[in-house]
Specification:
The chain is α+β, with helices and mostly antiparallel strands and 488 residues long. 37% of the residues lie in helices and 25% in strands. Strands 1, 2, 3, 11, 12, 13, 14 and 20 form an eight-stranded mixed β-sheet that branches. The chain has a seven-stranded mixed β-sheet with strand order 9-8-16-17-18-15-19. It has a three-stranded antiparallel β-sheet with strand order 6-10-7. The longest helix is centred in the C-terminal third of the chain and has 18 residues. The two termini are 35 Å apart.
Length: 488
């Protein structure tokens, strides 16, 4: 049985796959599926595809509303970027951004050491903290399956590492509270190292040796014109039928698939599809699926989100006393109650600021201060400047200010999150043709979403007797991916 072709039939179209939500998860899934020759449609409630990802040029400064870069070590991502014709549009991280990662410590910015030798000589850690780090390979205990990040890091590396390094990482990059966050979900690579090798240090050593032979090298990059370039290229892929302003309000199971109804600019629209991918945040997915499976809907309703505010400041270079020789800094809770981190965007990538200018992006709120996003713009800017002035030697007010708010910025991997995900997967097995792909499943980064798009495409292609050519196009990529990764 070959793919369905898109056609009008009594005002109803038929697709092989209908994707609800045109954010990065939906677009990535659509891209992989379109390559196979299936008919794919994306129905997006907003007026543009891309979801939270939006690059904005203002007074010569290029700001990002959400993801600022891709940190990639997965061959699936390299494959997509190359086949989508984006290699020439990539902008790689500048060498000066690799110099330091800073941590706010004692009201000063201190370089955060990334290697064990440097950590042992760093003034960030007390003697007791350094001895505790050295003891990690000799700790043989393993925590419970629902262990929190705080419990996991304290058990393996000590309380000092948690408070000074891991807490600001979790608060700054995941907008979460490590006391509540599931370690296996938020720190999957570290958790896997303990499970496989019994020690983080031993696991890092073994992986470092194996990675030289088998894995895709790590690369940090964005694109000319910002991350919006990735979204635009995926959305323009031939074979992807994107409709904006289509707010899906009903999913119904039919004999050969699904009936999907949406409120659209031209009135109510309905189509049929063999498979449906719901690529919206969990609350919207829960509401949409309630009539299909109440238990699955309740599982999705239990996923909370953090709200984050971003303050972008454009300044003259001479107005900043700090060398800005790094990616930026993270702020532990003990040092800052509202601002969790500051990204030096113009140091990271070229063309983020006009010549002689710098662009700094601060992150405020999250689980640490959820009320901050309700502040007005002036309050957010004042709080940001109050924190930054003594740290980087600000000598003048910014010439460009932009404030972005994300009400459902990041899913919070709280509680027994892995069990929740396992329960969701089990329910999905009972509902043929329904798939869930969004940041609450297996990672919030752009890298994770591109990889998951590939995974769901393979799953769909394996589920039915599609044409052999359709299966081969995605399966060949998957086989190459597994070979490159060494199945590690």
């Amino acid at each position: 049985m070959g793919p369905w072709t898109t056609r009008k039939c009594e005002q109803m179209e038929k697709f092989d796959v209908l994707i609800v939500g045109g954010g990065i998860s939906g677009l990535a899934s659509a891209w992989w599926l379109a390559r196979s020759g299936l008919s794919v449609a994306v129905w997006e409630a907003g007026e543009r595809p891309g979801g939270k990802i939006l690059s904005t040029r203002q007074q010569g400064y290029l700001t990002e509303r959400a993801a600022s870069m891709v940190l990639n070590f997965r061959p699936e991502v390299s494959e997509l970027v190359s086949k989508a014709g984006l290699d020439s549009a990539k902008t790689r991280r500048r060498s000066e951004a690799e110099a330091h990662r800073y941590l706010l410590h004692g009201n000063c910015l201190k370089a955060l050491p990334m290697r064990m030798g440097a950590m042992l000589t760093s003034p960030l850690w007390s003697l007791g903290g350094k001895l505790r780090l050295l003891a990690e390979p000799f700790i043989f205990s393993r925590g419970p399956s629902g262990e929190s990040v705080s419990e996991f890091i304290t058990r393996r590396l000590g309380r000092e590492v948690l408070e000074k390094a891991v807490e600001p990482f979790v608060a700054g990059t995941l907008a979460a509270d490590p006391d509540l966050t599931c370690a296996a979900a938020a720190l999957p690579r570290l958790s896997a190292l303990e499970r496989r090798y019994g020690s983080l240090a031993a696991g890092v050593l073994v992986n470092r040796v194996l990675r030289r032979r088998t894995a895709c090298s790590t690369e940090v990059f964005s694109f000319q014109g910002g991350m919006g370039t990735l979204v635009d290229r995926l959305a323009a892929t031939p074979g992807i039928n994107i409709r904006t302003g289509y707010a899906v309000n009903e999913l119904l199971v039919r004999k050969e698939g699904w009936q999907i109804t949406a409120n659209a600019p031209q009135g109510e629209q309905t189509c049929y599809a063999r498979h449906v991918i719901v690529a919206t945040p969990a609350p919207a997915a829960a509401a949409l699926i309630a009539r299909v499976d109440q238990e699955l809907s309740l599982l999705l309703q239990g996923i909370d989100y953090a709200t984050v505010a971003l303050v972008h400041l454009g300044l003259a270079r001479e107005a900043v006393g700090h060398a800005l020789n790094g990616t930026g800094f993270l702020a532990p809770k003990a040092e800052s109650t509202v601002l969790t981190g500051n990204l030096w965007a113009s140091t990271l990538f070229p063309d983020r600021a006009p010549p002689g200018k710098v662009l700094l992006t601060s992150y405020l709120g999250g689980a640490r201060a959820p009320h901050a996003a309700d502040w007005n713009d002036a309050q957010l800017v004042d709080e940001t400047l109050k924190t930054l002035r003594p740290l980087i030697g600000l000598k003048a007010d910014p010439e460009m200010v932009r404030v972005d708010r994300q009400r459902e910025a990041l899913p919070l991997y709280y509680g027994a999150y892995q069990k929740r995900m396992q329960s969701i997967a089990a329910r999905l097995k009972q509902i043929p043709g329904l798939h869930l792909e969004a940041s609450y499943r297996e990672g919030v980064s752009v890298r994770d979403r591109l990889v998951r798009g590939h995974a769901v495409a393979r799953q769909i292609l394996a589920s039915e007797q599609w044409s052999s050519m359709a299966r081969r196009r995605v399966d060949d990529c998957g086989d190459a991916t597994e070979a490159m990764a060494g199945r590690a």
